[in-house]
Design brief:
Length: 380
């Protein structure tokens, strides 16, 4: 495993601090290791809709809620800009997608995190993570009829991976992914591969949180495209290239309730904020803006959620819906934590456990990408 490497100072006004970042190993040594878009689905007389927002910040950028929030309207053709040669998305090597499945009210969405260690071989994993998300979005969009009801999260990940494997413009790289398919009957399925992940939050409670898939500390499962030169090098110097497959993804099935908040994020969030930290942030804004409110049996979801999640439901300049506000708040909180050199985050505590001589403290600077899906029960 490579030593942790120091990075240059990054800024998020008005803070200027220095932190450090890990580089994920590309190879598994045989003798060491075992293995914002603001969005709403269309409503119906019954069931649930997922009001979705995404926010993001590349590790080399200061966070700007105006530019780092993507607004998406279903079936409008408004999509995140594709990453092209010579340019870097404001989400860096992190990527996301969201789209209705065909013309149905079912929705697919997810995040992907390009593995930075490939830069040592002159390969930018951003093309793989962004490409994977674009292929998954296109597949969801083109899946119609009875197939829309049957599309599975791991199937979507598999088809997206097949797309990037066949894409000659993507030279190589590695990426994690956390992909969801949500149905209007309240069922949703998640396929998670690597150390991106999600939590399902309810009023004052963490209902579910995913566990990362790792081969060893700092070595997540990852989909990869391995150029012939790197394969040849591995045969000469030893070590086995990390190339996990979509069928290695952990698949979980869940049911939602009115007022649930689903947070999908890359490790730029999880390395700096715990699930409890996220619940505190989400609770602050959900209660503050009336999304969750006090009831006879404690905190409950509000009947005003539908209005709060529509465009203009929140009287703010950029975050004009509750889900947009939550996505921006989580991204901003993770960004600040990543730049804090005094308060140890989850990643720092893991470094201290595995490498006590590293003297690593504070947050971990990284790209950050967050999707928030706020669940609204449709009126009968």
């Amino acid at each position: 495993m490579r030593p942790i490497q120091a990075l240059r100072a990054l800024t998020i006004s008005p803070i200027l601090q220095v932190s450090a970042c890990r580089v994920v190993p590309l190879f598994q040594q045989r003798d060491l290791y075992s293995q914002c878009s603001a969005y709403s689905t269309s409503t119906s007389s019954q069931g649930f809709s997922y009001r979705i927002a995404a926010s993001f910040s590349a590790k080399g950028n200061s966070f700007n809620p105006k530019t780092d929030l993507f607004s998406y309207v279903p079936f409008s053709g408004t999509l995140p800009k594709k990453i092209i040669s010579g340019q870097r998305s404001r989400s860096g090597q992190d990527a996301f997608f969201v789209n209705n499945i065909g013309n149905s009210s079912h929705v697919a969405f997810g995040v992907a995190d390009g593995v930075g260690g490939w830069s040592d071989s002159g390969i930018d994993s951003a093309f793989l993570s962004h490409g994977l998300c674009e292929y998954m979005r296109e597949i969801a969009e083109k899946t119609g009829g009875p197939s829309a009801e049957k599309l599975k999260a791991r199937e979507l990940l598999q088809k997206g991976y097949e797309g990037v494997l066949a894409d000659e413009s993507i030279a190589g790289g590695g990426t994690t992914a956390c992909v969801a398919v949500g149905h209007e009957d309240g069922g949703f399925e998640v396929a998670n591969l690597g150390d991106s992940g999600f939590v399902q939050l309810r009023p004052n409670a963490i209902h579910f949180y995913s566990n990362p898939q790792i081969h060893a500390f700092n070595t997540p499962y990852q989909l990869s495209i391995i150029p012939p030169k790197i394969l040849a090098r591995s045969r000469i110097f030893g070590g086995e290239p990390l190339r996990d497959l979509p069928n290695n993804a952990s698949v979980t099935h869940h049911e939602v309730r009115h007022g649930d908040v689903l947070v999908f994020a890359t490790d730029g969030v999880w390395d700096n904020l715990s699930s409890t930290d996220l619940l505190k942030v989400v609770s602050r804004y959900m209660t503050g803006f009336g999304g969750w409110e006090a009831g006879s049996e404690g905190l409950v979801a509000s009947g005003q959620l539908n209005n709060l999640t529509l465009k203009g439901g929140i009287a703010k300049e950029h975050e004009r819906s509750l889900q947009s506000l939550l996505a921006v708040a989580i991204t901003g909180e993770a960004k600040m934590a990543s730049l804090n050199t005094k308060i140890d985050g989850p990643f720092a505590r893991e470094v201290q456990k595995h490498y006590p001589r590293e003297n690593f403290h504070g947050g971990k600077v990284d790209d950050i990408c967050v999707i928030v899906a706020l669940v609204v029960g449709n009126e009968k």
